Amino acid sequence: MSRPRRERLSVTGVESVGPYALLRVRRGRIEPGAPGQFFMLEAPGRVLPRPMSLCLAPPGELAFLLDPIGPGTKALARLDAGDRLHVFGPLGNGFRLDVPRPLLVGGGIGIAPLPYLAEALEHPPAVLGFRSAHHAQAAALLPCAEVVIDPTLVTDVMPVNRNVLACGPEPMLHAVRALAPDAQLAWEAPMACGYGACFGCVVEVEGELKRLCVEGPVLCSS
């Protein structure tokens, strides 16, 4: 497992992907870690960092898919090439890759960790769901995926007898778990520290309280 590091990294660019933003930074000495792990990015002018899954790890870079809807993510999306920001990671537990028949399932900004995961698994089948065609432009990051748009749900088209690895909004994860009880699910919650000190990311999963930054964000639902 890669050891977390905190470094001040240079931004190489920010690209629009539908309503989302793909933030690219130079990697420095930070390792990308396992798919599904996350990094804490210090947003300019904000007190608390923002947790972001790694989306892509091309040579020498780390790339993060953002949904710029709050002050922190908007500040990150406004960065320009040459700007610098502190990045801390990789953190948390990622997906297990030892699965014989993987199927990737993502919803909305929850597709963020799936391109890096798809590369690690040699591009297995994927199903992605979005609220609109504008949001579905992000499916270009997984060009072979099947895409559905609301009101069609990912669970409407999920094939059976697959090892599901999923990330998306909580209602989607519950629906996926109902169809695939052994699924690996990447949960989301606000985080202030990223290493278990603040208990700000505690969620209840199957009747148990979990600190997603240290016990997750990827949890097996069985």
Helix vs. strand class: alpha/beta
What is the chain-wise order of helices and strands? EEEEEHEEHEEHEHEEEHE
Gap from first CA to last CA? 24 Å
Largest pleated sheet: 6 strands, antiparallel
On the 0-100 scale, what is the average pLDDT? 91
Radius of gyration: 16 Å
Question: Which regions are unreliable across 5 or more consecutive residues at pLDDT < 50?
Answer: none
Q: CATH homologous superfamily of the largest domain, by name?
A: Nucleotide-binding domain of ferredoxin-NADP reductase (FNR) module
Corresponding CATH architecture of the largest domain = 3-Layer(aba) Sandwich
- What is the strand content? 25-35%
Spatial sequence of strands, sheet with the most strands:
4-3-6-1-2-5
Tally of alpha and pi helices? 5
Q: What's the domain count?
A: 2
Shape summary: globular
Q: What's the helical proportion of residues?
A: 10-25%
CATH topology heading of the largest domain: Rossmann fold
Number of DSSP E strands: 14
CATH class identity of the largest domain = Alpha Beta
Report on this structure.
The protein is of the alpha/beta class and 222 residues long. It folds into two domains: 5-91, Translation factors (Elongation Factor Tu (Ef-tu), domain 3, Beta Barrel); 102-220, 3-Layer(aba) Sandwich (Rossmann fold). The chain contains five helices and 14 strands. The mean pLDDT is 91.
